[in-house]
Structures are given as C-alpha cells and as structure tokens.
C-alpha cells in the first residue's frame, strides 16, 4: 500500500495538518468486479481468464497513472472472493477465487468499500471469505452490514494518515432513513478519533437510472449535516449527477469502472472523480473538483481508459450536471462541460 491505512481502533500519531499552499487529492471510482458471474467462471476471454493470461496489473493498466499520482483512491468492490459454489438464487452471483484479490495490489486503489447487493451472493460465509482474502494481502476495506438492526458479517471503518491529514471512511448498503442514526454515530466516532475528512460510501439508488431518486437528495443532505465531507455513491451502474452542499460533495453514482459481468443495458461511460483540499484555519477545505472522463470495456478487455475526443468528454460531463435546482444544493456550473473542472470557494462552485 502506498499510504498508511489502519482500522478505526488503532492508534494514530497525530502530525501537523496539511501545509498552506499544498493540496491533497482524493480519487473515487465506481464498481469494480474482479471476477464474473459463477455461470461464466473461467470461460475464455472472461475476467479471470484475462487476469491469468495478461497479469494482475491488467484491469487498471490504462488509468493507473492517475490513481498512482493522487494521494488516496477509493473503489467499490463488487465481487465475492471465494471458492464456494453454494449461492443465493439470483441472476448474477459474482465471484472470483481469493487469489484474484491480488489485482488490487496493482491497481493504484488504496481502500475498497465491501458492502453492496452482491457481498452476500455466497451467503455470510462467502462474505467472510472476501474479508479473509483482503486481510491476507493487507488491503484496506470497510463497510457496515446491518440486518434487523444487528451487524452481520462486518462493521468496520478505516482511518488513513495521508500527507498529515487523517481520512476516515465508512460504508452502508441500501440505506434507510433509520440508518442515519447509525451513520451519524460512526461519523462522530471517526471525528472523535481525529479524522479531518470523513467519506461515507452509500450503495444506493435505482439501477440503470441516469438521475437519483427524490429521497436521495434529503438523505445526502442529512449525511453531510451529520459531519461527512463526501457522500460517495454507487450501484446504478451508470453515471449520475454531482452536487455540492454546505462544503460537502455528493457523488450520487460513479458508474462501473472495471466489471466482469457487463449487461448490454449498462452505460460504459465512467470516470475518475477527484477532490482537492487545501489547508484552511478550520482544517482541509474543498478547493477543486475534477473528473477524468473514461469509458470501460466488456468481455475480452475490461479496462477503463480515458476519453480524449472533445465530444466524448462532454458527453460524460453533461451526465454529471443536474438539470434543475434542488433546495440548498448547488449543481455543477455549465463551464464544467468544457473543462471537467470546478473551482470551489466557501463551499460554492465558481463559474
């Protein structure tokens, strides 16, 4: 791992904050399924076949330079690392042998959210296999799974010390209104442990829909009001708009990034979402949002790559601008269509 990551309860030596004039860059990418549906396991030109024939560094090789150049990268891990065959009765139970977890060591990603609608495809035992596979290679992961108000499988947050800034992260899947209390408790624990920035990962929304559902606006505001700096969403398998609210950022859906089972209905547009923070008297302050527009590929490749044609880039950028005002939230300005960059001051986008 490039950056020091530890579980929440480990002690961190608190160092001075980010120096004035310096920036810290966090990157977020969407769903990463390092494997395939069990019915396609091991087939020629499938995901794991490509790993076996091209090496563990294959999936992220065309965008690795961006993920290495930032300070910390988050991804949503949507696969079960297991050898088990007993699975839930569903269309696409996603799996990969535990050895394929090593692909993450060649990705530029630093931590993964593990709670989503596929994490229990092979029951609780398969989920625990995933945790064991990640722990075996020392890879940071986080997420809280609740069933009937009781944790199941994992309730884990992480803290990372990056360039003298402490970042905390937690994750929930299919969040309900009642989960706001649980999320708030965890944000408070992370802040109390010394976190300067808190990321809340939410696996939510409606699959293949280009816009968030109306309830998500209020829920996202609630999470930021509880003390989060970033609401980072995934699950729809398509890009959805980005909004700003009270100094925080809401990424409703970051799409598919590298995915072993690509439906024909899924939009392949994706991106690397980067947030830059500068030192201020109150701690790190959001100063810029940048999106590196990408498209991902299906069977026989699976690699995302950056879009370079202006029309293609603007197609991606347009999907990230919400078309109408929503309460106290700010949409990305129209200038974003040309640059993919928004400068931010006092929590507000600058034209």
What does this structure look like?
This protein is of the alpha/beta class and 351 residues long. The chain has a single domain (4-345), classed as Purple Acid Phosphatase, chain A, domain 2. It is built from 7 helices and 22 strands. A hairpin with a 2-residue loop joins strand 21 and strand 22.
Could you tell me the number of beta strands? 22
- What's the architecture in CATH terms? 4-Layer Sandwich
What is the alpha-carbon Rg in Å?
19 Å
- In the residues, how many domains can be counted? 1
Q: How does the helix and strand content classify structurally? A: alpha/beta
Largest sheet: 11 strands, mixed
Return residue spans where pLDDT drops below 50 for at least 5 consecutive residues: 8-16
Strand content bin: 25-35%
**Shape, per Cα inertia axes:** globular
Could you name the CATH homologous superfamily?
Metallo-dependent phosphatases
CATH topology: Purple Acid Phosphatase, chain A, domain 2
Distance between the termini: 37 Å
Kindly provide the name of the CATH class: Alpha Beta
Mean pLDDT: 92
Number of helices: 7
Pattern of helices and strands: EEEHHEEEEHEEEEHEHEEEEEEEHEHEE
Instruction: Give the proportion of residues in helices.
Output: 10-25%
Highlighted features:
single chain, 351 residues, alpha/beta, Purple Acid Phosphatase, chain A, domain 2, eleven-stranded mixed beta sheet, eight-stranded mixed beta sheet, 7 helices, 22 strands, globular
Fold topology:
Blueprint: E1 4-7, E2 23-33, E3 36-37, H1 47-54, H2 64-69, E4 72-77, E5 80-81, E6 94-96, E7 111-113, H3 123-136, E8 140-147, E9 150-156, E10 158-162, E11 165-173, H4 179-192, E12 197-203, H5 214-225, E13 230-234, E14 242-245, E15 248-251, E16 256-259, E17 269-280, E18 283-295, E19 305-306, H6 310-318, E20 330-331, H7 336-339, E21 341-345, E22 348-349
Parallel strand pairs: 2-4, 2-16, 4-7, 5-6, 7-8, 11-12, 12-13, 13-15
Antiparallel strand pairs: 1-10, 2-17, 3-6, 8-9, 10-11, 14-15, 14-20, 17-18, 18-19, 18-21, 21-22
